[in-house]
Amino acid sequence: MRLLVLFGLIILCLSGTSAAESGPSTAKSVAHTWGGKARHLVVAVIDGPRWSETWGASGQPDIPHQARELAPLGSRYDHFRNTGWTYTNCGHTAITTGFYEQIENAGNQLPARPSVFQFFRQATGLPAESTWVITSKDKLLILGNTSDPTWKDRLQPSLDCGVPARGPFGGYRDDRLTVAAAKAVLTAHHPALLLINFKEPDAAGHAKNWPGYLQGIRDTDGYVAELWQHIQADPELKDRTDLFITNDHGRHLDGHGDGYISHGDDCEGCRQISLLAVGPDIAVGQVFQDVRTQVDLGVTIAHLAGVTLPGSPGHLLTEMLVTVPSETEKK
Ligand SMILES: [Zn+2]
Ligand SMILES: [Zn+2]
Known about the structure:
Helix content: 25-40%
Low-confidence stretches: 1-22
Shape: globular
Radius of gyration: 20 Å
Mean pLDDT: 92
Oligomer: single chain
Strand content: 15-25%
Number of domains: 1
Number of helices: 9
CATH class: Alpha Beta
Strand order of the largest sheet: 4-3-5-1-6-7-2-8
Bound molecules: zinc ion
């Protein structure tokens, strides 16, 4: 017994923590090991396109950059889904925390669980500039924090959401400004984790503007290609960055409710979304028929970042990864 206590004390001394400090800490206690080859993970969330106007459209006329430039370089899924609540804050929270949660959608509720950004900063001891949330929608600042009392207000990512000059909840900004902000951050900080949200085509859809909705799909297709080109032009980021392009939710099918204008229920149009991934950890030129979800993406991003999302029901997207961990490495 005494030996055990002594052994325990030695472990505590070696790890540099005490039992009272079992929560998150900025102290770097262990060497950090990445899950893959990439040292930078970028997630671009295009808000609310329908499958029928993106990958489901014959010849994919409105996503030419993703379909013809990026898809041949990486992997994509024909059956990627939001299986939680099909609105913005839930879809994004599922990716960043690995849990579907019926979270309030105006930004008045923080995710119940800590995010991959916080776990990464805890594991690495890196400062806030190592992780970023850059969004056109101001309300997505919720992704930077959690209501979990152990993690709340701690180890948060850097935030640039909506119109920061007007303060929190300063309104939505144009996606062109968001992509410019993301490029500037990529160059200045070479972040390990970066999530970008584009408000289109969701905003034009809600405005009942069909041409604007299609233009939003074309514009965001151009922005993700710009991001990829920006990454390739930076010697630190090139060949060391995985880019994930996905959606938070779809929209109602035609003939269901008000069709493309709204979303939020269980219809197939709201559920079916897309995932395209490119980078050193991603298989080249693959199209998968596996049914996968946003919490699976969350778990996979965490894995590549060298952390886990404890208790998440998500499964690693092993089919698209170049290197799959052995059973003993999976946690
Ligand atoms: Zn919406
Ligand atoms: Zn629907």
